[in-house]
User: Fold this.
Amino acid sequence: MKAIVFNHHGGPDVLKCTDAPDPVIHPNEVLVRVKACALNHLDLWVRRGIPGVPIPLPHIPGSDISGEIAQIGAEVSTVRVGQQVVLTPLVSCGKCAACVAGLDNHCRQATNLGYMIDGGCAEFVRAPEVNCLPYPENLSFEEAASIPLVFQTAWHMLLARAELRPGEDVLVLGAGSGVGSAAIQIAKFFGARVIATAGTDEKLQKAKQLGADYLINHKTQKIRDEVRRLTNKRGVDVVFEHVGTATWDDSLASLAAGGRLVTCGATTGYDAKVDLRFLFTRQLSLLGSYMGTKSELQTVMKLVVAGKLKPIVDRVFPLAEAAAAHAYLESSSQFGKVVLRV
Ligand SMILES: [Zn+2]
Assistant:
């Protein structure tokens, strides 16, 4: 099969479009003919190399996959050949205490398609049967592939971790990112008031179209000052973080007393400081969040089919131009998802 493969870590130029062996499925797995694979920041980290994470080489990246079932293993009973599917990115053991409790994002053996195992930047990918989600018929393959990772992550952050309640104020950082554009929609769906930040006015207008109530251009405005002004000096109940070092101080300073900061990433770096006096006197909560459960993604899919949440596709590249797609994502000029069409 044709695949995007890298043999060593580095810049976008390490990604080669080449021939790779067809994946061989296990009895509980399916082989998916990939139609679209959406990119995430995770793909950039995996390509560059992460200290302490020995990603098997050569490696095929890509976590967010839509396509058609090409082959099923002997034990597979819930999907058939030819069926369209979206894949849940998280591959967990299915047997540990966390997995049987439905908390597969707490599984110690869990990884993502395209992380410690081969992913979907290829003509075919193998995945466990339980990772097959019903296909949302109203969506293109590119749109369908744009849902799983960011929507599941944003959902888990806002609902499971930050326990968002109607009427609360939420600061969504990086509205132009996939996870940011998902968070705005989810927060609005649950009746929150949303303040969104982005680095260009064009992105801010798109955030407004998604429902953001207030906009902050972080290139020309100071986030904490604007939040104070917009909330009458109170601050927000929830800060939706994934940017890291560049925004951390502003994020903490933007919290109302009793506020919750939830984070799923550190795009600009992972060094951060916390003034403990501020943490305890204002009774703040700092919450980490990782991916989401399969069950949460099933709920997201229902809301996508119902038209309540929608994936935002910024730009589609052909598979062979994966390196250009990575460079584009790295430039942060997108609003929504960057997708490879296979
Ligand atoms: Zn497990």
Notes: Residues 148-161 form the longest helix (14 residues).
